[in-house]
Amino acid sequence: MYQSEFTRFMNGFLAEHPEVDTERRELRLTWWDREQNPDDARRWKEARVPQKPYVYQPD
Fold it and tell me: Which Pfam families match (predicted)?
């Protein structure tokens, strides 16, 4: 199976530096894998301002 030079490099780098993958997983938990708050989602939806079809068109 074909692997690009970059893929081979990254696989080798991560094999030599497993702490990088561990840190990546911890940071992912910080930013992405969070529990969603329905109240926040509702407020963001209500606060949204509709965009004009062509934003550069003066009124």
Answer: DUF3460
